[in-house]
Amino acid sequence: MAGRRILSLWFPRLAAERVARRRGDVVPTPLAVVDDRNGAQVLVSLSAEAEAAGLALDQPLRDATAICPSLLTVPADPPNEARFLMTLRRWAGRFSPWVADEPPAGLMIDLTGAAHLHGGEAGVLARVAEDCEGLGLTVRAAIADTPGAAWALARYARAGVAPLRSGDAIDQEARATRSRAARRRGWERGGNLPRAVTARGAETALVAPPGRLHEALADLPLPALRLPADVVDRLARLGLRRIGDIMGLPRAALARRFGADTLRRLDQALGLEPEPVSPARPPMHFAVRLTLPDPIGLRSDVEAALDRLLPPFCDKLKARGRGVRRVLFQGFRADGGVASVEVGLARATDSPDRIRPLLHLKLDQIDAGLGIDCLRLEALATEAVSALQHRGQLEVTAQALAGPAPGQPLEDLIGRLGARLGTEAVLRLHPADSHVPAKSAKVLMAAWSQPHDGPWPAPSGPRPLVMFRPEPVDAPETPDLPARFRWRRREFTLRMAAGPERLQPEWWFEDPDWRGGTRDYWRVEAEGGERLWLFYGRGGAVTDQWYCEGVFS
Q1: How far apart are CA 331 and CA 175, in angstroms?
Q2: Which tens digits make up the pLDDT trace of 135-184?
Q3: Are the beta carbons of 213 and 224 closer than 8 angstroms?
Q4: Could you give the C-alpha distances from 435 to 134, 459, 539, 541, in angstroms and in order?
Q5: Which pTM was predicted?
Protein backbone atom coordinates (compact mmCIF):
# COMPACT_ATOMS: atom_id res chain seq x y z
CA MET A 1 0.00 0.00 0.00
CA ALA A 2 3.01 2.35 0.46
CA GLY A 3 3.32 4.97 -2.23
CA ARG A 4 -0.06 4.26 -3.80
CA ARG A 5 -2.04 7.32 -4.92
CA ILE A 6 -5.63 7.25 -6.16
CA LEU A 7 -7.56 9.99 -7.97
CA SER A 8 -11.35 10.00 -7.68
CA LEU A 9 -13.45 12.08 -10.07
CA TRP A 10 -17.13 12.76 -9.43
CA PHE A 11 -19.41 14.56 -11.87
CA PRO A 12 -22.37 15.65 -9.71
CA ARG A 13 -24.34 17.07 -12.67
CA LEU A 14 -23.38 14.51 -15.30
CA ALA A 15 -26.87 13.64 -16.62
CA ALA A 16 -28.05 17.26 -16.83
CA GLU A 17 -24.83 18.56 -18.35
CA ARG A 18 -24.84 15.78 -20.94
CA VAL A 19 -28.22 17.07 -22.16
CA ALA A 20 -27.05 20.68 -22.01
CA ARG A 21 -24.01 19.82 -24.15
CA ARG A 22 -26.26 18.33 -26.82
CA ARG A 23 -28.67 21.26 -26.77
CA GLY A 24 -25.98 23.91 -27.00
CA ASP A 25 -28.17 26.76 -25.74
CA VAL A 26 -26.57 30.18 -26.03
CA VAL A 27 -28.25 31.31 -22.81
CA PRO A 28 -28.26 28.46 -20.26
CA THR A 29 -31.68 27.70 -18.82
CA PRO A 30 -32.59 25.76 -15.66
CA LEU A 31 -32.56 22.09 -16.68
CA ALA A 32 -33.44 18.95 -14.75
CA VAL A 33 -33.39 15.23 -15.53
CA VAL A 34 -36.52 13.46 -14.29
CA ASP A 35 -36.99 9.80 -13.39
CA ASP A 36 -39.73 7.69 -11.82
CA ARG A 37 -39.16 6.80 -8.16
CA ASN A 38 -41.84 4.82 -6.32
CA GLY A 39 -44.52 5.91 -8.76
CA ALA A 40 -43.63 9.61 -8.65
CA GLN A 41 -41.50 11.78 -10.90
CA VAL A 42 -38.54 13.29 -9.08
CA LEU A 43 -35.46 15.29 -10.06
CA VAL A 44 -32.36 13.09 -10.33
CA SER A 45 -29.91 15.57 -11.88
CA LEU A 46 -29.83 19.37 -11.95
CA SER A 47 -27.88 21.97 -13.85
CA ALA A 48 -26.11 24.78 -12.03
CA GLU A 49 -28.87 27.21 -13.06
CA ALA A 50 -31.54 24.89 -11.63
CA GLU A 51 -29.71 24.62 -8.31
CA ALA A 52 -29.35 28.40 -8.21
CA ALA A 53 -33.14 28.65 -8.64
CA GLY A 54 -33.61 26.76 -5.37
CA LEU A 55 -34.24 23.23 -6.67
CA ALA A 56 -32.83 20.12 -5.02
CA LEU A 57 -32.25 16.49 -5.92
CA ASP A 58 -35.04 13.97 -5.21
CA GLN A 59 -37.54 16.84 -5.24
CA PRO A 60 -40.96 16.02 -6.76
CA LEU A 61 -41.43 17.43 -10.22
CA ARG A 62 -44.66 19.24 -9.39
CA ASP A 63 -42.96 21.10 -6.52
CA ALA A 64 -40.00 21.99 -8.74
CA THR A 65 -42.19 23.46 -11.49
CA ALA A 66 -44.04 25.51 -8.90
CA ILE A 67 -40.73 26.99 -7.67
CA CYS A 68 -39.22 27.44 -11.14
CA PRO A 69 -41.90 27.70 -13.89
CA SER A 70 -39.23 28.04 -16.60
CA LEU A 71 -37.66 24.68 -15.69
CA LEU A 72 -36.78 22.51 -18.69
CA THR A 73 -37.16 18.79 -17.96
CA VAL A 74 -35.95 15.73 -19.86
CA PRO A 75 -36.46 12.04 -18.99
CA ALA A 76 -33.55 10.04 -17.61
CA ASP A 77 -31.63 7.99 -20.17
CA PRO A 78 -29.37 5.54 -18.24
CA PRO A 79 -27.98 3.73 -21.35
CA ASN A 80 -26.79 6.95 -22.99
CA GLU A 81 -25.50 8.26 -19.67
CA ALA A 82 -23.46 5.06 -19.26
CA ARG A 83 -22.06 5.50 -22.77
CA PHE A 84 -21.14 9.09 -21.97
CA LEU A 85 -19.34 7.93 -18.82
CA MET A 86 -17.46 5.38 -20.94
CA THR A 87 -16.36 8.24 -23.21
CA LEU A 88 -15.08 10.12 -20.16
CA ARG A 89 -13.22 6.99 -19.11
CA ARG A 90 -11.36 7.06 -22.40
CA TRP A 91 -10.54 10.74 -21.81
CA ALA A 92 -9.23 9.95 -18.31
CA GLY A 93 -6.79 7.50 -19.85
CA ARG A 94 -4.50 10.46 -20.57
CA PHE A 95 -3.64 10.64 -16.86
CA SER A 96 -3.15 6.91 -16.23
CA PRO A 97 -3.92 3.67 -18.06
CA TRP A 98 -5.59 2.29 -14.94
CA VAL A 99 -9.10 3.82 -15.02
CA ALA A 100 -12.24 2.22 -13.57
CA ASP A 101 -15.89 3.24 -13.71
CA GLU A 102 -17.78 4.31 -10.59
CA PRO A 103 -21.39 4.35 -11.90
CA PRO A 104 -23.43 6.35 -12.35
CA ALA A 105 -21.23 9.47 -12.41
CA GLY A 106 -17.71 8.76 -11.20
CA LEU A 107 -14.27 7.54 -12.25
CA MET A 108 -11.46 6.01 -10.20
CA ILE A 109 -7.89 6.44 -11.47
CA ASP A 110 -4.73 4.83 -10.11
CA LEU A 111 -2.15 7.64 -10.33
CA THR A 112 0.70 5.64 -8.81
CA GLY A 113 3.90 6.57 -10.64
CA ALA A 114 2.13 8.78 -13.21
CA ALA A 115 1.47 12.09 -11.47
CA HIS A 116 4.93 13.50 -12.22
CA LEU A 117 4.17 13.34 -15.94
CA HIS A 118 1.65 16.16 -15.45
CA GLY A 119 3.53 18.37 -13.03
CA GLY A 120 2.68 16.51 -9.83
CA GLU A 121 -0.65 15.88 -8.16
CA ALA A 122 -1.60 19.55 -8.16
CA GLY A 123 -0.86 19.67 -11.88
CA VAL A 124 -3.09 16.64 -12.48
CA LEU A 125 -6.01 18.27 -10.68
CA ALA A 126 -5.47 21.53 -12.53
CA ARG A 127 -5.47 19.76 -15.90
CA VAL A 128 -8.56 17.72 -14.96
CA ALA A 129 -10.41 20.91 -14.02
CA GLU A 130 -9.29 22.65 -17.19
CA ASP A 131 -10.45 19.80 -19.43
CA CYS A 132 -13.79 19.47 -17.67
CA GLU A 133 -14.39 23.19 -17.93
CA GLY A 134 -13.82 22.95 -21.68
CA LEU A 135 -16.23 20.00 -21.85
CA GLY A 136 -18.90 21.92 -19.91
CA LEU A 137 -18.81 19.48 -16.99
CA THR A 138 -18.74 20.08 -13.25
CA VAL A 139 -16.15 17.93 -11.47
CA ARG A 140 -15.10 17.26 -7.91
CA ALA A 141 -11.69 15.63 -7.59
CA ALA A 142 -9.61 14.28 -4.73
CA ILE A 143 -6.33 12.37 -4.41
CA ALA A 144 -5.62 10.05 -1.50
CA ASP A 145 -3.79 6.84 -0.62
CA THR A 146 -6.83 4.54 -1.03
CA PRO A 147 -9.85 4.41 -3.35
CA GLY A 148 -12.20 4.65 -0.37
CA ALA A 149 -10.55 7.79 0.96
CA ALA A 150 -10.40 9.45 -2.47
CA TRP A 151 -14.08 8.57 -3.06
CA ALA A 152 -15.08 10.05 0.29
CA LEU A 153 -13.10 13.27 -0.12
CA ALA A 154 -14.38 13.88 -3.65
CA ARG A 155 -18.02 13.60 -2.59
CA TYR A 156 -18.15 14.82 1.00
CA ALA A 157 -15.18 17.11 1.62
CA ARG A 158 -15.60 20.84 1.05
CA ALA A 159 -12.87 23.06 -0.30
CA GLY A 160 -12.01 26.05 1.83
CA VAL A 161 -13.10 24.46 5.15
CA ALA A 162 -11.25 25.96 8.09
CA PRO A 163 -8.77 23.50 9.63
CA LEU A 164 -9.15 22.21 13.13
CA ARG A 165 -7.93 24.55 15.88
CA SER A 166 -4.55 23.03 16.52
CA GLY A 167 -2.77 26.14 17.81
CA ASP A 168 -0.21 26.01 15.03
CA ALA A 169 -1.65 29.12 13.34
CA ILE A 170 -1.27 32.36 15.31
CA ASP A 171 -4.62 33.74 14.06
CA GLN A 172 -6.45 30.81 15.70
CA GLU A 173 -5.48 31.90 19.16
CA ALA A 174 -7.32 34.40 21.32
CA ARG A 175 -5.91 37.94 21.38
CA ALA A 176 -4.80 37.56 25.00
CA THR A 177 -2.80 34.39 24.38
CA ARG A 178 -1.15 35.25 21.08
CA SER A 179 1.92 36.55 22.85
CA ARG A 180 2.43 33.15 24.49
CA ALA A 181 1.54 31.01 21.42
CA ALA A 182 4.28 28.80 20.04
CA ARG A 183 4.28 26.63 16.92
CA ARG A 184 4.52 22.94 17.75
CA ARG A 185 7.13 20.73 16.23
CA GLY A 186 6.24 18.46 13.31
CA TRP A 187 6.21 15.25 15.30
CA GLU A 188 3.75 16.78 17.79
CA ARG A 189 1.18 18.08 15.32
CA GLY A 190 -0.40 14.81 14.24
CA GLY A 191 -0.42 15.55 10.50
CA ASN A 192 -2.04 17.90 8.03
CA LEU A 193 -5.58 18.08 6.73
CA PRO A 194 -6.35 17.66 3.00
CA ARG A 195 -4.90 20.55 1.05
CA ALA A 196 -7.14 22.42 -1.37
CA VAL A 197 -5.60 22.90 -4.80
CA THR A 198 -6.37 25.92 -6.95
CA ALA A 199 -8.04 24.43 -10.03
CA ARG A 200 -10.21 26.76 -12.05
CA GLY A 201 -13.36 24.94 -13.19
CA ALA A 202 -13.52 22.37 -10.40
CA GLU A 203 -15.95 22.61 -7.49
CA THR A 204 -13.51 20.76 -5.25
CA ALA A 205 -9.88 19.75 -5.78
CA LEU A 206 -8.25 18.20 -2.72
CA VAL A 207 -5.00 16.35 -2.08
CA ALA A 208 -4.72 14.27 1.09
CA PRO A 209 -1.11 14.11 2.34
CA PRO A 210 0.40 10.62 2.05
CA GLY A 211 0.00 8.55 5.19
CA ARG A 212 -2.49 10.94 6.83
CA LEU A 213 -5.76 9.14 6.18
CA HIS A 214 -7.02 9.31 9.78
CA GLU A 215 -6.84 13.09 9.86
CA ALA A 216 -8.27 13.41 6.34
CA LEU A 217 -11.33 11.23 7.03
CA ALA A 218 -12.08 11.89 10.69
CA ASP A 219 -14.38 14.88 10.11
CA LEU A 220 -16.33 13.40 7.15
CA PRO A 221 -19.88 12.08 7.63
CA LEU A 222 -20.47 8.33 7.83
CA PRO A 223 -22.07 8.03 4.35
CA ALA A 224 -18.57 8.78 3.01
CA LEU A 225 -17.64 5.19 3.94
CA ARG A 226 -20.14 3.89 1.35
CA LEU A 227 -22.27 2.31 4.08
CA PRO A 228 -25.94 1.37 3.52
CA ALA A 229 -28.47 3.99 4.54
CA ASP A 230 -29.99 1.81 7.27
CA VAL A 231 -26.59 1.28 8.92
CA VAL A 232 -25.94 5.04 8.87
CA ASP A 233 -29.34 5.65 10.49
CA ARG A 234 -28.66 3.11 13.26
CA LEU A 235 -25.26 4.67 13.97
CA ALA A 236 -26.79 8.16 14.02
CA ARG A 237 -29.28 7.07 16.69
CA LEU A 238 -26.28 6.36 18.94
CA GLY A 239 -24.80 9.78 18.25
CA LEU A 240 -22.16 8.48 15.82
CA ARG A 241 -22.25 10.78 12.82
CA ARG A 242 -18.61 11.19 11.75
CA ILE A 243 -16.01 8.68 10.65
CA GLY A 244 -13.82 9.74 13.55
CA ASP A 245 -16.59 8.68 15.96
CA ILE A 246 -16.24 5.00 15.01
CA MET A 247 -12.46 4.82 14.51
CA GLY A 248 -11.83 4.23 18.20
CA LEU A 249 -14.76 1.90 18.93
CA PRO A 250 -14.11 -1.77 19.78
CA ARG A 251 -13.96 -3.63 16.49
CA ALA A 252 -15.69 -6.80 17.68
CA ALA A 253 -18.68 -4.93 19.08
CA LEU A 254 -18.89 -2.72 15.98
CA ALA A 255 -18.94 -5.75 13.66
CA ARG A 256 -21.44 -7.61 15.83
CA ARG A 257 -23.95 -4.76 15.98
CA PHE A 258 -23.54 -3.19 12.52
CA GLY A 259 -22.16 -5.99 10.37
CA ALA A 260 -18.73 -6.96 9.12
CA ASP A 261 -19.20 -4.77 6.05
CA THR A 262 -18.97 -1.67 8.25
CA LEU A 263 -15.51 -2.72 9.40
CA ARG A 264 -14.50 -3.69 5.87
CA ARG A 265 -15.43 -0.27 4.48
CA LEU A 266 -13.57 1.47 7.29
CA ASP A 267 -10.47 -0.67 6.76
CA GLN A 268 -10.57 -0.08 3.01
CA ALA A 269 -10.74 3.67 3.47
CA LEU A 270 -7.84 3.62 5.98
CA GLY A 271 -5.70 1.31 3.88
CA LEU A 272 -5.84 -1.64 6.29
CA GLU A 273 -7.57 -3.84 3.70
CA PRO A 274 -6.57 -3.72 0.02
CA GLU A 275 -9.11 -2.46 -2.47
CA PRO A 276 -8.02 -2.86 -6.09
CA VAL A 277 -8.94 -0.49 -8.88
CA SER A 278 -10.28 -2.76 -11.61
CA PRO A 279 -10.35 -1.02 -14.99
CA ALA A 280 -13.04 -2.09 -17.42
CA ARG A 281 -11.82 -4.12 -20.34
CA PRO A 282 -12.03 -2.07 -23.52
CA PRO A 283 -14.72 -3.36 -25.88
CA MET A 284 -13.58 -5.35 -28.87
CA HIS A 285 -13.62 -3.19 -31.97
CA PHE A 286 -13.24 -4.46 -35.51
CA ALA A 287 -12.94 -1.93 -38.31
CA VAL A 288 -10.77 -1.32 -41.38
CA ARG A 289 -10.42 1.78 -43.53
CA LEU A 290 -9.18 2.47 -47.03
CA THR A 291 -8.12 6.01 -47.99
CA LEU A 292 -8.09 6.70 -51.74
CA PRO A 293 -5.70 9.09 -53.52
CA ASP A 294 -8.50 10.28 -55.83
CA PRO A 295 -12.28 10.26 -55.31
CA ILE A 296 -14.22 7.40 -56.92
CA GLY A 297 -17.86 7.23 -57.97
CA LEU A 298 -18.41 4.06 -60.01
CA ARG A 299 -19.96 0.97 -58.47
CA SER A 300 -17.19 -1.20 -59.90
CA ASP A 301 -14.61 0.91 -58.05
CA VAL A 302 -16.53 0.58 -54.79
CA GLU A 303 -16.73 -3.19 -55.27
CA ALA A 304 -12.99 -3.36 -55.90
CA ALA A 305 -12.34 -1.36 -52.73
CA LEU A 306 -14.66 -3.65 -50.80
CA ASP A 307 -12.70 -6.67 -52.04
CA ARG A 308 -9.56 -5.09 -50.59
CA LEU A 309 -11.21 -4.33 -47.23
CA LEU A 310 -12.84 -7.70 -46.55
CA PRO A 311 -9.71 -9.93 -46.21
CA PRO A 312 -7.98 -7.84 -43.48
CA PHE A 313 -11.36 -7.29 -41.81
CA CYS A 314 -12.00 -11.04 -41.58
CA ASP A 315 -8.40 -11.68 -40.49
CA LYS A 316 -9.01 -9.45 -37.46
CA LEU A 317 -12.14 -11.42 -36.62
CA LYS A 318 -10.35 -14.77 -36.95
CA ALA A 319 -7.48 -13.60 -34.76
CA ARG A 320 -9.94 -12.98 -31.88
CA GLY A 321 -12.19 -15.97 -32.58
CA ARG A 322 -15.18 -13.77 -33.44
CA GLY A 323 -17.76 -13.76 -36.18
CA VAL A 324 -19.68 -10.72 -37.38
CA ARG A 325 -23.49 -10.49 -37.21
CA ARG A 326 -24.03 -6.89 -38.34
CA VAL A 327 -21.76 -5.00 -40.72
CA LEU A 328 -21.64 -1.26 -41.43
CA PHE A 329 -20.10 -0.08 -44.72
CA GLN A 330 -19.45 3.66 -44.98
CA GLY A 331 -18.33 5.88 -47.82
CA PHE A 332 -16.95 9.33 -46.91
CA ARG A 333 -17.56 11.81 -49.72
CA ALA A 334 -15.31 14.64 -50.81
CA ASP A 335 -18.00 17.19 -49.85
CA GLY A 336 -17.96 16.01 -46.21
CA GLY A 337 -21.06 13.80 -46.39
CA VAL A 338 -21.23 10.15 -45.39
CA ALA A 339 -23.19 7.41 -47.18
CA SER A 340 -23.60 4.12 -45.32
CA VAL A 341 -25.34 0.78 -45.61
CA GLU A 342 -25.87 -1.85 -42.94
CA VAL A 343 -26.53 -5.58 -43.33
CA GLY A 344 -27.18 -8.43 -40.92
CA LEU A 345 -26.27 -12.09 -41.20
CA ALA A 346 -28.27 -15.10 -40.10
CA ARG A 347 -25.22 -16.61 -38.41
CA ALA A 348 -21.94 -15.12 -37.25
CA THR A 349 -19.21 -15.58 -39.83
CA ASP A 350 -15.63 -14.58 -40.54
CA SER A 351 -15.72 -15.50 -44.23
CA PRO A 352 -15.49 -12.72 -46.88
CA ASP A 353 -17.51 -14.82 -49.32
CA ARG A 354 -20.56 -14.70 -47.04
CA ILE A 355 -20.35 -10.97 -46.30
CA ARG A 356 -19.64 -9.72 -49.82
CA PRO A 357 -22.95 -10.79 -51.51
CA LEU A 358 -25.04 -9.08 -48.83
CA LEU A 359 -23.17 -5.80 -49.17
CA HIS A 360 -23.45 -5.97 -52.97
CA LEU A 361 -27.23 -6.02 -52.62
CA LYS A 362 -27.14 -2.55 -51.00
CA LEU A 363 -24.28 -0.82 -52.80
CA ASP A 364 -26.80 1.04 -54.97
CA GLN A 365 -27.90 2.94 -51.85
CA ILE A 366 -24.48 4.60 -51.53
CA ASP A 367 -24.64 8.05 -53.12
CA ALA A 368 -21.15 8.94 -54.33
CA GLY A 369 -21.99 12.61 -54.84
CA LEU A 370 -18.81 14.47 -55.84
CA GLY A 371 -16.79 11.32 -55.20
CA ILE A 372 -15.78 9.03 -52.35
CA ASP A 373 -12.27 9.41 -50.99
CA CYS A 374 -12.47 7.05 -47.98
CA LEU A 375 -14.24 3.74 -47.31
CA ARG A 376 -14.71 2.11 -43.92
CA LEU A 377 -15.96 -1.34 -42.85
CA GLU A 378 -17.01 -1.87 -39.22
CA ALA A 379 -18.48 -4.77 -37.24
CA LEU A 380 -21.46 -3.53 -35.19
CA ALA A 381 -22.22 -6.89 -33.55
CA THR A 382 -19.99 -9.92 -33.17
CA GLU A 383 -20.26 -13.35 -31.60
CA ALA A 384 -17.78 -16.01 -30.62
CA VAL A 385 -17.29 -18.68 -33.27
CA SER A 386 -15.45 -21.97 -32.96
CA ALA A 387 -13.27 -23.47 -35.65
CA LEU A 388 -14.32 -26.74 -37.23
CA GLN A 389 -12.37 -29.84 -36.35
CA HIS A 390 -10.00 -31.10 -39.03
CA ARG A 391 -11.38 -34.11 -40.86
CA GLY A 392 -9.79 -36.92 -42.69
CA GLN A 393 -9.80 -37.59 -46.41
CA LEU A 394 -12.82 -39.90 -46.28
CA GLU A 395 -15.00 -37.31 -44.52
CA VAL A 396 -13.93 -34.55 -46.91
CA THR A 397 -14.66 -36.73 -49.95
CA ALA A 398 -18.06 -37.72 -48.59
CA GLN A 399 -18.99 -34.08 -47.98
CA ALA A 400 -17.84 -33.05 -51.45
CA LEU A 401 -20.04 -35.73 -53.00
CA ALA A 402 -23.00 -34.80 -50.80
CA GLY A 403 -22.76 -31.09 -51.65
CA PRO A 404 -22.74 -28.09 -49.31
CA ALA A 405 -23.91 -28.35 -45.75
CA PRO A 406 -27.72 -28.27 -45.53
CA GLY A 407 -27.77 -25.32 -43.12
CA GLN A 408 -25.49 -22.94 -44.98
CA PRO A 409 -27.72 -22.30 -48.06
CA LEU A 410 -30.66 -21.59 -45.74
CA GLU A 411 -28.60 -19.13 -43.70
CA ASP A 412 -27.44 -17.38 -46.86
CA LEU A 413 -31.06 -17.15 -48.02
CA ILE A 414 -32.12 -15.65 -44.67
CA GLY A 415 -29.29 -13.13 -44.94
CA ARG A 416 -30.33 -12.09 -48.44
CA LEU A 417 -33.98 -11.78 -47.48
CA GLY A 418 -32.99 -9.79 -44.41
CA ALA A 419 -30.93 -7.42 -46.55
CA ARG A 420 -34.00 -6.78 -48.72
CA LEU A 421 -36.85 -6.87 -46.21
CA GLY A 422 -35.15 -6.28 -42.87
CA THR A 423 -33.82 -8.86 -40.45
CA GLU A 424 -36.88 -8.65 -38.19
CA ALA A 425 -39.25 -9.38 -41.10
CA VAL A 426 -37.85 -12.87 -41.79
CA LEU A 427 -39.53 -15.34 -39.42
CA ARG A 428 -39.59 -19.08 -38.84
CA LEU A 429 -41.84 -21.47 -36.90
CA HIS A 430 -40.74 -23.76 -34.10
CA PRO A 431 -42.88 -26.49 -32.60
CA ALA A 432 -44.27 -25.73 -29.16
CA ASP A 433 -45.22 -28.19 -26.45
CA SER A 434 -48.97 -27.60 -26.39
CA HIS A 435 -52.02 -29.63 -27.38
CA VAL A 436 -53.96 -26.43 -28.12
CA PRO A 437 -53.94 -26.06 -31.95
CA ALA A 438 -53.32 -22.30 -31.94
CA LYS A 439 -50.31 -22.77 -29.63
CA SER A 440 -48.67 -25.73 -31.35
CA ALA A 441 -46.06 -23.44 -32.98
CA LYS A 442 -44.19 -20.30 -31.95
CA VAL A 443 -42.90 -17.58 -34.24
CA LEU A 444 -39.20 -16.67 -34.01
CA MET A 445 -36.92 -14.35 -35.94
CA ALA A 446 -35.02 -16.52 -38.38
CA ALA A 447 -31.72 -14.64 -38.05
CA TRP A 448 -31.59 -15.11 -34.27
CA SER A 449 -32.80 -18.69 -33.93
CA GLN A 450 -31.81 -22.16 -35.03
CA PRO A 451 -34.01 -24.36 -37.24
CA HIS A 452 -35.86 -27.20 -35.59
CA ASP A 453 -33.72 -30.30 -35.42
CA GLY A 454 -35.71 -33.27 -36.64
CA PRO A 455 -39.15 -33.82 -38.16
CA TRP A 456 -42.10 -31.67 -37.15
CA PRO A 457 -44.12 -33.34 -34.35
CA ALA A 458 -47.24 -35.01 -35.69
CA PRO A 459 -50.50 -33.52 -34.34
CA SER A 460 -53.02 -35.61 -32.49
CA GLY A 461 -55.46 -35.17 -35.37
CA PRO A 462 -55.87 -33.44 -38.76
CA ARG A 463 -55.25 -29.72 -38.56
CA PRO A 464 -56.35 -26.99 -41.04
CA LEU A 465 -53.95 -25.37 -43.46
CA VAL A 466 -54.96 -21.84 -42.40
CA MET A 467 -55.82 -20.97 -38.80
CA PHE A 468 -57.13 -17.69 -37.37
CA ARG A 469 -58.84 -16.41 -34.24
CA PRO A 470 -62.25 -17.98 -33.65
CA GLU A 471 -64.97 -16.27 -35.69
CA PRO A 472 -68.66 -16.60 -34.73
CA VAL A 473 -70.88 -18.82 -36.88
CA ASP A 474 -74.59 -18.04 -37.22
CA ALA A 475 -76.14 -21.36 -36.15
CA PRO A 476 -78.47 -22.69 -33.43
CA GLU A 477 -76.81 -22.42 -30.01
CA THR A 478 -76.98 -26.16 -29.32
CA PRO A 479 -74.17 -28.75 -29.17
CA ASP A 480 -75.74 -30.62 -32.11
CA LEU A 481 -73.93 -30.07 -35.40
CA PRO A 482 -76.08 -27.71 -37.53
CA ALA A 483 -77.24 -28.82 -40.97
CA ARG A 484 -77.17 -25.21 -42.24
CA PHE A 485 -75.09 -22.27 -40.94
CA ARG A 486 -73.90 -18.83 -42.00
CA TRP A 487 -70.28 -17.65 -41.85
CA ARG A 488 -68.68 -14.56 -43.35
CA ARG A 489 -71.98 -13.51 -44.94
CA ARG A 490 -72.28 -16.82 -46.80
CA GLU A 491 -74.77 -19.66 -46.41
CA PHE A 492 -73.37 -23.19 -46.04
CA THR A 493 -75.15 -26.53 -46.21
CA LEU A 494 -73.51 -29.43 -44.42
CA ARG A 495 -72.46 -32.32 -46.66
CA MET A 496 -70.33 -34.45 -44.33
CA ALA A 497 -68.60 -34.08 -40.98
CA ALA A 498 -66.06 -35.91 -38.82
CA GLY A 499 -65.77 -35.52 -35.07
CA PRO A 500 -66.06 -34.43 -32.43
CA GLU A 501 -62.52 -34.00 -31.08
CA ARG A 502 -62.70 -32.63 -27.55
CA LEU A 503 -59.82 -30.43 -26.37
CA GLN A 504 -59.39 -29.34 -22.77
CA PRO A 505 -57.81 -25.97 -21.83
CA GLU A 506 -54.33 -25.70 -20.36
CA TRP A 507 -55.17 -24.69 -16.82
CA TRP A 508 -51.62 -23.50 -16.06
CA PHE A 509 -51.88 -20.74 -18.70
CA GLU A 510 -53.98 -17.61 -18.24
CA ASP A 511 -55.77 -17.62 -21.60
CA PRO A 512 -59.15 -15.86 -21.40
CA ASP A 513 -60.41 -17.65 -24.53
CA TRP A 514 -59.91 -21.07 -22.93
CA ARG A 515 -60.28 -20.39 -19.22
CA GLY A 516 -62.69 -22.84 -17.60
CA GLY A 517 -64.09 -24.43 -20.76
CA THR A 518 -63.69 -27.16 -23.35
CA ARG A 519 -64.21 -27.26 -27.10
CA ASP A 520 -65.68 -29.89 -29.41
CA TYR A 521 -64.01 -29.63 -32.85
CA TRP A 522 -65.59 -30.88 -36.11
CA ARG A 523 -64.14 -31.20 -39.60
CA VAL A 524 -67.01 -30.33 -41.90
CA GLU A 525 -67.36 -30.17 -45.67
CA ALA A 526 -70.04 -28.00 -47.25
CA GLU A 527 -71.87 -28.72 -50.52
CA GLY A 528 -69.74 -26.13 -52.33
CA GLY A 529 -66.56 -28.03 -51.42
CA GLU A 530 -65.43 -25.77 -48.60
CA ARG A 531 -63.73 -27.65 -45.76
CA LEU A 532 -63.95 -25.83 -42.45
CA TRP A 533 -62.92 -26.43 -38.86
CA LEU A 534 -65.80 -25.68 -36.51
CA PHE A 535 -66.06 -26.04 -32.77
CA TYR A 536 -68.68 -25.56 -30.10
CA GLY A 537 -67.40 -23.65 -27.06
CA ARG A 538 -68.38 -24.84 -23.60
CA GLY A 539 -66.62 -22.25 -21.41
CA GLY A 540 -64.26 -19.30 -21.27
CA ALA A 541 -64.71 -16.21 -23.44
CA VAL A 542 -66.17 -18.28 -26.31
CA THR A 543 -69.05 -20.31 -24.91
CA ASP A 544 -72.41 -21.77 -25.93
CA GLN A 545 -71.93 -20.90 -29.57
CA TRP A 546 -70.45 -22.27 -32.78
CA TYR A 547 -67.19 -20.84 -34.12
CA CYS A 548 -64.92 -21.35 -37.12
CA GLU A 549 -61.17 -21.44 -36.47
CA GLY A 550 -59.60 -22.71 -39.70
CA VAL A 551 -59.86 -23.75 -43.33
CA PHE A 552 -58.57 -27.05 -44.73
CA SER A 553 -56.87 -27.30 -48.11
Answers
A1: 77
A2: 999 999 999 999 999 999 999 987 443 333 444 555 545 555 545 544 44
A3: no
A4: 65, 8, 17, 19
A5: 0.60
